[in-house]
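Progress note, project year one: complex with dinuclear copper ion.
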Amino acid sequence: MSIQAPEAGWFRPPSGGERTWMGLALVWCLVMSAMMPFWHFKGQQNSTGESYTVEPVKFIERVERFVASNKVGEDKGIPIVEPAPGGDAYLLGRMWSWYPILKLKQGQTYRLHISSSDLQHGFSLQPVNMNFQVLPGYDHVLTLTPTMKGDYQVICNEFCGIGHHLMTGRIIVE
Ligand code: CUA
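Model obtained:
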């Protein structure tokens, strides 16, 4: 079987309703494209885009130093860590937990470093629904100012294996 060339003169330019719908689709594509840079500057839940390469082993060392010097408690064996207001905070995603539990103060700005020690995870802060990719080898820094007190859940929204659904964490804002 071979591919047959269509008959000559097969093309008819779109007209009428087809033309209208194609026009609307094109306009909507342009609007959506414009919204991406718009929200980058205007949105309040965007990544700063600040990230650095880091070896997973080095990142784990930083997390452990952060935990050792700022630990204020423990919940089911997971340390609760309170970073200095305005300081750096660390969060490690790994199969299948978020480590440690962070305790932040409302109205203070933190530099939250997030990375993974194994494979790709998805940081999803609930119920506010802020979502960021978490990749091994990259220290993604989020400048974060909690505006509401509460006990927030962190879930993983990137399928990462058999324990994916168990990968939850906490951020407490006081
Ligand atoms: Cu980590 Cu899904």
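The pocket of dinuclear copper ion is lined by residues 96, 121, 156, 158-160, 164, 167 (CB under 6 Å).
The first strand starts at residue 50 and ends at 53.
No further modelling is planned for this target in the current period.
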